[in-house]
Amino acid sequence: MEVREQDLRTIVQRIGMCEAEIGKAIIGQKDVVRQVILALMTNGNVLLEGVPGLGKTQLVKTIARVFDIEFSRIQFTPDLMPADVTGTNLIVKENGQNVFKFEKGPVFANIVLADEINRATPKTQSALLEAMQEKTVTVGNETYQLPQPYIVLATQNPIENEGTYPLPEAQLDRFLFKIYVNFPSLEELKQIMDVTVTNKKVELTPIMSAPEILFIRDVIREIPIADAVNEYALKLVVATHPEVPGAPEITKRYISCGASPRAAQAIYQTSKARALMEGRLNVSFDDIKAVAYPALRHRLALNFEALSDGMTADRIIHGIIESVKI
Amino acid sequence: MAGKNQTTASIISYIKSVRTRIQVNRIFKFFMLGAVAGMTAAAIANGISLIVPFFYVIPVSIVLFGAGCMIGLLIPLFTGPSLERAALIGDSFGLQERVTTAYQNRNDNSNIAMIQRQDTVARIKKVSLRKEIPFRIPWKEFLALLVATILTVVAIMLPSAAKETAQNRNELKKLIAQEEKKMEEMQKEIEKNDKLTEEQKAELNDIFENAKKELKEAQSKEDVDKVEERLETKLAQAANESGKQAEEYENGKQEAQEKLNGSKEEQQQAVNDLQKMAQENHDEKLKEIADNMQKDLDEKGEVSEENKKEAEEQLEQGSQQAQNQQQAANEALNQTENLQNPPSQQLAQNQQGQQGQQGQDPNGQQGQDPNGQQGQDPNGQQNPNGQNPNGQNPNGQNPNGQNPNGQNPNGQNPNGQNPNGQNPNGQNPNGQNPNGQNPNGQNPNGQNPNGQNPNGQNPNGQNPNGQNPNGQDPNGQNPNGQNPGGQDPNGQNPGGGQPGGGQPGGQPGGQPGGQPGGSGDDPNGSGGSGSGGGWNYGSDVGQEGLYTPTGKEQLTIPNVGNDANLEGKLNGNGSGYTQESDQSLTWSGNRVDYDQVIGNYTDQAYSNLNNSEIPKSMQDMVKDYFVELNQ
């Protein structure tokens, strides 16, 4: 693929413009926005974790608007059925005859917000997870392609665990990133109030389109990565496994099961995207370190000692980054 | 393409610049570290040398320091960073792995790779390597080097007993090596000597080999001296035995000549004697001849002329071989004795000997003083006992038994030989014990049954060096020609000084010979005008002739001497008094029975002991000596 320098500059510029545009409607949350964009640019899905009311739905809506892609929202409840997610065949009268017609479910959109995914039953969760992984939906005997670009942003409430169905590790592993949505600061809160409870209207302009997103994805794959940087990324993933000789002490102490190769793929792809967004045409160690947190935090199975010591995944990842030498 | 090459070249140039600067700093640092390590090791070595003897500590210190510097220099040369590593280091100045990626993909011709390289080149131009990788002087290492150097210098400058010990050990080692070398040279000369048989050579070589073995075990100079003493003794024994053997052959030859021309019984006796001689000397040829003679006697009743002649030739040959061995042993002995006297000492002794040749002994005794006055001691004064105001006894000994210049009456060198003529090891120069017995148990006169002393001394008791075993001739006269009481055996008293002992002058052993005797009251007018003397330790080539007692005393002088003092010149500074007498025991060769003189000799000795200030231990030694003599 031939990439011109002008194209690269344009990409960097337009991504910057998108961030700025999103920033009009979403106050603060710069890292969250950037990471969601990274996931969008690398064909990944995101698990957003935050208390209710932090603007997760608003974020997805805004991204959809700025990138000019179709948006849908699924509110997961315990009684939600898979067909409610994927769609189902309905009997309709067509030309005097009763025929089955597939009615697409809400999953058929470019960007899908799966709200409180942990409230739905595993069966319903799995219906969405097939769409996330395969980018297809199978209903009956037919398989339907989902539109491209396709990204699922699932949300979890960290507080309410009563009556929920936590996603199993195997399912969590399919998410590219797990992003924490934190409570905004006072200043950000003021701005949020200013935007949301006043008559001020925020007009968002579409900056990018779906084809452009696809093009950017191709360009990102061309970004070179040096062997030393690549090796560093892989060392980080290997260092999450306590059974490996030479694993850091923190890994041996708090992790029962390390990250899968999908984590390495996630780090690999998203670091390239980040490098491009930074205006560079090569991946650096900083890129690796930056994407390591969202890529690994949901892929580490912590043991009881971590829970009892109050050790979080981010602290463990920080310890691993400190111990692995370049 | 040209652009691509240029960007690649720029990137590589940048990487190499980074590597060079890193390497220079590493060389500085490692060199200093190596120097510090080397100097610290040197300081430790020198510190250890203050406690443990270590002679080569300074060369070792230099080697350690040099090795440390060299290793410090070589390590960075061989372990410098690779270009990839240098690229990573170059990226750490805010380039975010641009250089590493560009260098890795320098051969990638895709658009994005080229754009990435161009971006890298644009960025590296903004990096100042002088600021990012400055040349640093390793001050800490420099200070450490300074401290280590000071410690080393202090350790070198501090004196200690261990250093002295190391010095002494090194000198001993050199001395031993020197001695060994000389012994090997002597062995080579023995090997080259065509006149010796293989057995004789082996016998002499064994003596040297044993001496070399003992030398290796020597722990001090005294041990080395002892080894040489023993070597000398063994060589003297070998020479003596060879002399005996030669004489035996010679006597045997004469007897055989007489008896073989006699009756049948006399011939038989001669044959028996020859057989016995052959057996004792392991002479197969002689045994064969004797057997043939016996056969002649049995068959013909008389020995054939042919066998007689063969026997005579064999005996002559045996005698000659024994003489050759004796000569070789004596030569080796002479060279060995030279080993004991380093050139400086020998020079001093030679100078003293020269004084003696001129009629002066080193003490100015024997009737002549350095001022040339007769009958005066060196100080020009006399006391009734013949002692000079310095307390020198008539023997010329000072109260501590030494001559004024530190020599004892035996003329031994000033290196501490005792008044009895014993060397510091307690032996007389020819190995005699203080009782006057030589190591072979020979009579106190120091004579062997043949009239020779173990070291080939003549019946006068002179060793090849011309010294008497106890510094005295068999008549009890000291080298000064004085008897212990200051009188000669003929009743000479110290007189106005020291009586002339009439010693045969010209003693090649460095006796203060040539001293005119008979000064003062010499009842018999005996005295000797000595000739020769001085401190010559014998010629290198001369050999002693065999001694055959003829009823008169004979003096043996080495045939060849290379010292002028052998000519025995009188002192030219003053007048000398000489008196010749044909009744002198040592000059004319009269022999007096031992029993006739021992009593007087003993009395005079005791008298002098009472009147002298010899240390008590020495007095006891003298008394013990005479006790043994009188037993």
Task: Please outline the major beta sheet of chain A.
Answer: 5 strands, parallel
Strand content of chain A: 15-25%
Secondary structure tally: strands of chain A = 11
Query: Helix and strand succession of chain B?
Result: HHHHHHHHHHHHHHHH
**Chains forming the largest contact:** A-B, 22 and 20 residues
Features:
heterodimer; A: 326 residues; alpha/beta; Rossmann fold; Helicase, Ruva Protein, domain 3; five-stranded parallel sheet; 11 strands; globular; B: 631 residues; mainly alpha; 16 helices; elongated
Write the layout of secondary structure elements.
The complex is a heterodimer of chains A (326) and B (631).
Chain A: H1 5-25, H2 30-41, E1 46-49, H3 56-66, E2 71-75, H4 82-86, E3 87-94, E4 97-104, E5 111-115, H5 122-134, E6 136-139, E7 142-145, E8 151-156, H6 169-172, E9 177-180, H7 186-196, H8 210-222, H9 227-238, H10 249-254, E10 255-257, H11 261-277, H12 285-296, E11 301-302, H13 304-309, H14 313-323
Parallel strand pairs in A: 1-8, 1-9, 2-5, 5-8
Antiparallel strand pairs in A: 3-4, 6-7, 10-11
Helix pairs in contact in A: 1-3, 9-11, 9-12, 11-12, 12-14
Chain B: H1 2-49, H2 57-78, H3 83-91, H4 98-104, H5 111-124, H6 129-132, H7 139-157, H8 161-192, H9 198-216, H10 221-260, H11 264-280, H12 284-300, H13 305-340, H14 343-357, H15 594-611, H16 616-629
